[in-house]
Design brief:
It is a single chain. This protein is of the alpha+beta class. It contains 11 helices and 10 strands. It has helices spanning about 10-20, 30-40, 75-80, 100-105, 140-155, 160, 175-190, 205-210, 215-230, 255-270, 295-324; strands spanning about 45-50, 55-60, 70, 85-90, 110-120, 125-130, 195-205, 235-240, 245-250, 280-290. The strands form 2 sheets. Strands 3-2-1-6-5-4 form a 6-stranded antiparallel beta sheet. Strands 8-9-7-10 form a 4-stranded antiparallel beta sheet, with helices on both faces. Strand 2 (about 55-60) and strand 3 (about 70) form a beta hairpin. Helix 5 runs antiparallel to helix 7 (about 175-190), helix 8 (about 205-210) packs across helix 9 (about 215-230) and helix 9 packs antiparallel against helix 10 (about 255-270). The longest helix is centred in the C-terminal third of the chain and has 27 residues, at about 295-324. Mean pLDDT is about 90; it is low at about 320-324.
Length: about 325
């Protein structure tokens, strides 16, 4: 069954195309959210779908090789502009979708849930959706959690207007950490899932700046930012929250040893053979989010910051003892 066109379709398309997102390369800031949705809902497929005039195009796609499908087949076209999540428990028994080629054939959709996303001007753009090949239901809390993740997508789409991106690293800035991190914590609390806040501080940035100049210091910050982006694949948000301070919020996990080890190894490898970065290292602090005793994002950041400072002081103390 073909979805009806929105009443303001011409203006909606103008808003969508004016954002300059269609047919652009994949971006980690969107992929991070679809990976999180895929993991939180334990589904094989998660997408950020933008509904164009005659197609739906995927700004981010996990578990699906296709980058677009015809609009007439798009589940997301039915969710366009809806104030609620479109929830299809079993597409084979839903008259809107039972004869859809995406149900009858690959990827054999059975379950679909799509939370609408809007542009900065409020124009409906598409959805954040999760898909399974088996029928299933979502609870009201699940549906709200999916909408919370869709809100994170909206924040990313509006990042220029909201100024939530750090220009040096391309990560979120402190404001972005708050906007996106609060949403991610709310999702974990709603779904009773753990999380870990990792606070990272660059060691020896001042000596690097003083000895080699601020261009090398900026390179050191980018090295750590890139290492965090590649090491913390389960992060809901990664941000630079201060001059030499960065955070990562790992959602739906209590595991942190391996990603921190990868981070430290990546930083050490980048510093090898580079005289300007030879002193570069990181100090790390952690705070755990327990959904049974939830606390706010600011409290988690403060706890992880204190743990990082203790780790840095311990490291300084060891260095001083070695000198003596």
């Amino acid at each position: 069954m073909k979805a009806a066109l929105p009443s303001d379709e011409a203006n909606r398309l103008a808003s969508l195309r004016g954002l300059g997102l269609l047919d652009t390369p994949a971006e980690e800031r969107f992929d991070r959210i679809t990976r999180m949705a895929q993991r939180l809902f334990d589904v094989p497929i998660a997408l950020v779908s933008l509904v164009d005039e005659d197609r739906q195009w995927f700004k981010s796609h996990q578990g699906l090789d296709a980058t677009e499908t015809p609009r007439e087949m798009a589940f997301c076209a039915h969710a366009l502009g809806s104030p609620e999540v479109l929830h299809v428990s079993n597409a084979t028994t839903d008259p809107r979708f039972s004869d859809n080629p995406l149900v009858q054939g690959d990827p054999n959709i059975r379950f679909y849930a799509g939370a609408p996303i809007a542009g900065p001007d409020g124009a409906p753009l598409g959805t954040l959706c999760v898909i399974d090949r088996e029928p299933r239901d979502l609870s009201p809390d699940d549906l709200q959690a999916l909408q919370d993740l869709a809100t994170m997508v909206e924040h990313e789409i509006a990042f220029t207007e909201l100024a939530i991106t750090d220009e040096l690293t391309g990560l979120s800035n402190r404001r972005g950490m708050h906007l996106l991190g609060v949403q991610a914590i709310d999702v974990c609390a709603r779904l009773s899932l753990p999380a870990v806040l990792v606070f990272v501080d660059l060691d020896n940035l001042k000596p690097i700046n003083d000895g080699f100049g601020h261009e090398v210091g900026d390179r050191a910050i980018r090295v750590v930012a890139d290492a965090m982006a590649s090491s913390f694949r389960s992060a809901g948000v990664i941000a630079r929250v201060g001059g030499d301070e960065l955070c990562a919020l790992l959602v739906a996990t209590e595991s942190h040893d391996e990603p921190i080890r990868r981070l430290e190894q990546a930083v050490a490898k980048a510093a090898e053979g580079d005289a300007g970065l030879r002193q570069l290292a990181v100090s790390v602090g952690l705070a755990r989010f327990d959904p049974a005793e939830p606390v706010g994002l600011d409290d988690l950041i403060a706890e992880a910051d204190a743990a990082m400072y203790a780790a840095k002081q311990s490291k300084s103390g060891r260095a001083a003892r070695q000198v003596r």
